[in-house]
Design goal:
The structure is a homodimer.
Chain A: H1 3-10, H2 17-26, E1 29-33, E2 38-40, E3 49-54, E4 57-62, E5 68-74, E6 92-95, E7 99-104, H3 106-115, H4 117-143, H5 146-163, E8 171-173, H6 178-185, H7 189-201, E9 205-208, E10 211-214, H8 217-224
Helix pairs in contact in A: 3-4, 5-7, 5-8, 6-7
Chain A binds a DNA duplex through residues 36, 145-146, 177-179, 187-191, 193-194, 197.
DNA sequence: CGGACGCTTGATAGCCTTCAAACATAGTGG
DNA sequence: CCACTATGTTTGAAGGCTATCAAGCGTCCG
């Protein structure tokens, strides 16, 4: 049961009981991916719809020479992709920690959204949210310095996790290597390491054993110039 | 008549005559913006739907300290925004050259897409295309160097303009200042100037008087590591 | 003609990368 | 149980790409 996905849609729209049941039926299979596993490879043929049930994953695109850039993170409730412009997916998805994914038929899913106004609107809002986050990532790597980028990444992650009830008390699971942070912030591993040490020394935030602890949210958000507006979370979630 | 918009949707789906007529009616007002004008300001309240009829505009987000980052360009047929998560838009839009925009009621527009499957599917594909382009921009500023970024920007622009019949013979209108290129590539004006001079010296591409001339497409695309797959244009458009 | 704007150039500085290597931890196989 | 390997983290030194600062030039326009 893709509860997390239904919950995400319901953060945008009210679903009918029928719609909830349909969604439950549409995602039957599930599969667990270990840390570092490829959930989706770039240019894979589309296999069906998928939604993250638990864990954290990263969506990435890469260059021919092996360089990689994460373009967003997937949290519980997020779709692996929205569809459907070509036969092949345009981004890869990599599991950070252990990640559980529910799968369903793409056609069945498209039919569901064509027949249920609530699902269609929920999907529409979900993709708009993804688009807004994607643009913020462009701003992040384009116009913030290394410290701000990393701090912003952490602020975003904590805010999004809080919104789905997966983080509180300024702590959350962050099973992500410094190399992955580098590929998210457009930096090198070495530099990420140095910046993280500075953030730890300044007692703003620390990442240890896959757990991130924010010691001074106000100072961290300030350094990151973090404004959660772009996440378009409902008031209650902030 | 938002012909360009209908054409864009029809590059993805077949619209019925009824749908075309409805779209024509939905965008009645039109307005022209001079070079540099703000078509939409960040955090503006949403005013209605808008679609670019002619010209080029840039979608941007900015930081408190005045830094700005363009997150994508709007060409004829592109919507100013897709909707609808909060009362305020999350990106500004600035006219580069003289830009004509058609406007319509947002509610009427949403109703149209709720009632017409073709329009809904076309919109869905349009937003997926925007999302893919947005992710490519993140990759661009995150993992390419200055020369590659600028070259990639130009390759993208030429490819997209060609697809809508607004460019050919390796020339196109590019009424964009070096400062705007800097804000698109995450660089400074000074550095953009130097890189453009190098590209001109190497006889790859030149931008003069608002017109961009690509002298050596193969070499330019090679330096940019440009692969148009992410644009999801139909075969015929490439 | 003065001012705004955009383009250009030079000098200097610095953020971040690159290169190289050491260290820690966990998993594997003998 | 212990080499042995792989992966991730950490540290140091050096270099380069890009930013910053400053100024000059050209053009357009009121």
């Amino acid at each position: 049961m893709p509860i997390s996905f239904i919950r995400r849609l319901e953060s945008f729209v009210q679903l009918s009981e029928h719609e909830r049941r349909s969604l439950n039926r549409a995602f039957e299979g599930r599969r667990t991916y270990g840390p570092g596993a490829d959930i989706l490879r770039e240019h894979d043929e589309r296999l069906g719809m998928g939604v993250v049930l638990s864990g954290v994953a990263g969506r990435y695109r890469s260059l021919g020479d092996g360089q990689r850039q994460f373009v967003g993170y997937l949290l519980p409730g997020d779709l692996l992709y929205f569809g459907a412009l070509s036969e092949r997916v345009d981004c890869g998805v990599k599991a950070f920690g252990s990640t559980v994914v529910a799968r369903g038929s793409a056609q069945e899913f498209m039919a569901l959204s064509a027949q249920n106004a609530g699902i269609a609107l929920g999907l529409w809002k979900a993709i708009i949210q993804d688009l807004s986050i994607s643009r913020e990532w462009t701003l992040n790597v384009g116009r913030r310095n290394a410290e701000q980028r990393i701090a912003h990444l952490i602020c975003e992650q904590y805010t999004r996790l809080s919104a789905i009830g997966a983080a509180e008390n300024n702590r959350f699971v962050m099973p992500i290597t410094q190399r992955d942070i580098a590929d998210s912030a457009g930096l090198t591993t070495v530099h990420v390491n140095r910046v993280l040490q500075r953030l730890k020394r300044d007692e703003l935030v620390r990442i240890e054993n896959g757990v991130c602890t924010i010691q001074d949210w106000a100072a961290l958000a300030d350094r990151a110039k973090f404004d959660p507006f772009y996440l378009h979370l409902s008031r209650s979630a902030l």
